M23ase beta-sheet core domain-containing protein
Amino acid sequence: MGNGFIKIHAPYKESFSCTEHWDGQFKSLGDALGTDCVIQKLVDVEGRVFQRTFRNQGFENTDWFGFGKDVLAPCDCVVEAIHINEATNNPGMMIPGRASSITFRNKDYTRVLLAHVRDIRVKEGQEVKAGEIVAKVGNNGYSRNPHTHIAAWSEDKIPLQIQFDQTTLGIKTRQEIAK
């Protein structure tokens, strides 16, 4: 951590894109300067290759290439808190409420939050290593499609910009991504 940002492990092994929450868009600590990451896949349509997030019209969670995929730990850290929301939203609609989430704390007391997850595989107090599978991509809380929301803040509760350690991004061939 330094200069208002944190470098963390990529959230997925698959190709993904993120949409950032701009400074001032949201005030709450878990949303301020957060980013929403969606798994993508290269899709061949009549000899043209496009990067897409879902098949068909995307009306089912299973249409989304990321739904149910592994979510990876952001750092070598401790699981500080877990919240479970059992509801699953249909794409394009949302059931208001707090999303399922995992809050991690690293050795300098920086927190990283992963939200809208499902099938959480860790427990509070557990130590994890960066890149370890901790959950699956879900669609719950204030969410309109399967994705992972990531937020971070310093010990003194200042939101941090997120940067992904590019050495942790999976390198796959076009054929592997298209599977």
Q: What stands out?
A: The mean pLDDT is 92. The chain has one domain: 5-178.
